[in-house]
Structures are given as structure tokens and as C-alpha cells.
Amino acid sequence: MRKKKRHKRKRMNSGKRRQTVKTATAVFLVVLVAVTGLSMCRSQENAMKKEVRGVWVSYVDFAKLGLSNKSEAEFTENAKSFYDRAEELHINTVYFHVRAFRDAVYKSDYFPVSKAIWSRTEELPYDPLKIMTELADEYDMEIHAWLNPYRNSSFEEDILDPADGASTEEILLCVNELMDNYDIDGIHFDDYFYEEGDVPATSEKMTHVNRMIKQVYNAVHSHKGNMVFGISPAGNIGYSESLGADVKTWLSEEGYVDYIVPQIYWTDEHTAAWRDDMFSDTLDEWIGINVRNKPLYVGLALYKAGMHEADDPGWLSSNSNIEFQINQLRGKSCDGYVFFSASDLFRTGAAEELNVYRNLEF
């Protein structure tokens, strides 16, 4: 009996073990599926996070956003309202205008405070850029310092001379001051280089601008931290080159930019005689010259949404231009987009476009 009992007990234990193994296997499979699913979700989430969804906060936006001539408390509260709206619209990157006319929207030892942010006689009692960077961190967004390198004033012909080495030294002074004192994610230039109609030949313009661009790139990459340097040139490649922006070199050689944001500010319905290609065609041109596959984001003209444009009726005839353009970018494996500009996130005329945009997958 003992043998039988022992044998029986062994059989029972064996059965329990098999059942335990089955249960453990089932649990493992459930956990594996759950973990795999979670991993896939996280991978998809990370993939989506890699898409830059940006907005330019221009000096012309400051008053509209309630950031001009405000107390520190008012500035902070209104900046939070901007970040709330940006977050609601799935923005993850802010390009904040810190230098428009050889001035500063931050506490600078070298440049006067921007009148767009503070035109009162008394000294600015707080640091706008510090507040904006701290809030960007709270909202889990990147913030890049946006500079107009050469522009001296709002008069188009009044710029620093790109051929003068002192101009580059001043630009580097500003870039290094920003990198040394603020928790920014990068340095960003837009399309203001030479002015239209300037005498130097295009190749000479590009030589002078490239000399400066390479030095800024080297400064950014020599600095502590993991900052990047990018440029937003005009959307028409030929026009952009005529201003001294050597975009083909920037996208075919190392040492110039980490990313590029061409401003393709028109639809597939424009009728402008001077603009040969539609949005879709122009996008293909930029993809075509991006031979090193650098991150390509595209500047989108949110400021035209719902507006009457005589040479571009698409902005008024449709409320899905932005949606269409983003789908084009995604379908062609571009890396993101940037809206111009921040105040249009709140503009009534852009509301219909933004409502359609919000139905995209994020």
C-alpha cells in the first residue's frame, strides 16, 4: 500500500507538476504577449516621438501671445497658455526667437534687449528665455534658440556684412552666450542671409555664408551637451541659393547642418508666375537634393490657413491643406514639420484647418 500510495503520490505530484508547468507556460505566454504588445506600443510611441512637430515663436508673436511688456507673473502665465495650446496640438518642439535684429530676448552681456519683448524704460526684471526653457522642460518639449544671424534692423538693406569676419565673430559670440547660459536643445537659423538684389554673385555669397555656417556648426558640436544646429531656408531652392544659402552643399557634405527646414509656404493650387512647382513638387526637389538623408522637416504656412491669397486660392478653398501636406511628408519619410507661427495656433481663421489636423494620427 505504501508503494502504491507512494506511487500514487508520485503520479499526483507529476500531474501537479505538469499542471504547474502548463500554468506557468500559459502565464509566461500571457506575460510575453503583454510585454511584446507593450514593447510594440512603446516602439510605435518612440517612432512617433521622433517626428518633429514644431512651431516658430517669432518676435512678431510676442505681443499677440501676451509676452510683450509684461510682469514676470503675467509673462509666465501667458507662456503657459501658449504651451498648453501647443501641447493640445501635439507640438513637441519650440523654436523661440531670441535674436531678430542684433538684440536679445534673454539676459545678454553683449546685446540690447529686444524691443519686441520689452520696450519700457526700466530694465527688464526677469529672463524670458530662462522661463521659456524651464516651461519647455515641464511640458516635455524641446526648445531651440532661433537667430537671424545677419539682420541688423527691420530695414531689408540693413544687415551685417557676411564677407566681414567680424560679423561671424559677433554671431559666434551670441551662439556661445546662449549655449553657455541656457538649457537649450539647439541653435536655429532662418532664411535671412544676403538680401535679395545684393550685388555679389551667388557663388561669392554662398562662400561667405558657408564660412560662417561651418564655424557655427563646429561651435555647437564642440560645446558640452547634445545640441544640434539647423537652418530654415526659403522653400524655392533657386531663390534660396540667390540669398547665399548653399543648401545643396549643406545636404551633401558633413559639417554644415544637422537638419534642414525648407519653408514650403504654398499649396498645390498656387498660380504664382514666379513659382514653378506646387507644394508636392517642391517637396520632391528637397528630398532629391538631400543625398545624405539628413533630417528633413518642412515649414508649413499655418499663417495662411483660411486666408484669401490671390496667387494661392487653395488656402481659402480648402480647410485640409495642412493635413494633406503632413500626409505627404509622412508618406515620403520626412522627419517632421514646423508651423509658422505660434500666434496662428490661436487664430480663428486657422481653426478649421487645425480641427482637421487634429484628426491625424499622433
Structure, described:
It contains 11 helices and 8 strands. It has 362 residues and is an alpha/beta fold. The protein has 2 domains: 1-49; 53-357, Glycosidases (TIM Barrel, Alpha-Beta Barrel), CATH 3.20.20.80. It has an 8-stranded parallel β-sheet. Strand 3, helix 4 and strand 4 (186-189) form a beta-alpha-beta unit.
Secondary structure blueprint with pairings:
Layout: H1 2-49, E1 52-57, H2 72-88, E2 93-99, H3 128-138, E3 142-147, H4 165-181, E4 186-189, H5 202-222, E5 228-231, H6 237-242, H7 247-250, E6 259-260, H8 279-289, E7 297-300, H9 314-317, H10 321-331, E8 336-340, H11 351-357
Parallel strand pairs: 1-2, 1-8, 2-3, 3-4, 4-5, 5-6, 7-8
What percentage of residues falls in helices of 4 or more residues? Answer: 40-55%
Describe the sheet with the most strands: 8 strands, parallel
What is the domain tally? 2
CATH topology of the largest domain: TIM Barrel
What would you give as the CATH superfamily of the largest domain? Glycosidases
Number of strands: 8
Summarize this entry quickly.
By secondary structure, this protein is an alpha/beta fold.
Structure characteristics:
single chain, 362 residues, alpha/beta, TIM Barrel, 2 domains, 8 strands, 10% strand
